[in-house]
Amino acid sequence: MSVQKLSSKTVIKSGGDVFHEIFHQRPHHISDMSPSNIQSVDLHEGDWGTVGFISSWNYNHEGKQKVAKAVVESIDEENKTVAYNVIGGDLKELYKTFIIHLHVETEGENDIVTWTFEYEKLSEDVEDPTSFMEFATSVTKDIEKHHITN
Predict the structure, then answer these.
(1) How many CB atoms lie under 10 A from the CB of residue 63?
(2) Which residues, 6+ apart, have CB-to-CB distance to 120 below 8 Å?
(3) pTM of the predicted protein model
(4) Which CATH class is domain 4-149?
(5) pLDDT tens digits for the chain (150 residues)?
(6) Cα(16)–Cα(107) distance, rounded to whole angstroms?
(7) Strand, coil or helix: what is 90?
(8) Domain boundaries in the chain?
């Protein structure tokens, strides 16, 4: 099996700097902003906001409670990118590797959140993670709504 990629862009109006900061420094606050999707994010090892911190995500995907354990592989403040490598949990039952890249950029008056999944399926029967991408987009919109209304 080869490594595949899936990407999605979402325009947000709530500020790209805030969005980037949430995902690399305080992902444990996402459950307050998107409670129907993310129930909790707990620190397992390291310090929030540093490369190498390991967190456990409890989330609801396709009507089922799931968990993901991920390590932050990279943080680029200047380019507003964060990469999470999923090292445990439900996604590892389907994918040999699953790396989530988050990139926030500004184009004119818009901030654009780009999610890119790099993944290697465990078998040909495994579907591409399109529903998980829809989930990530839903979390993005919830965070935007939270910051626009608060």
Answers:
(1) 5
(2) 1, 2, 3, 4, 95, 96, 97, 98
(3) 0.94
(4) alpha beta
(5) 799 999 999 999 877 888 899 999 999 999 999 999 999 999 999 999 999 999 999 999 999 999 999 999 999 999 999 999 999 999 999 999 999 999 999 888 889 999 999 999 999 999 999 999 999 999 999 999 998 876
(6) 11
(7) helix
(8) 4-149
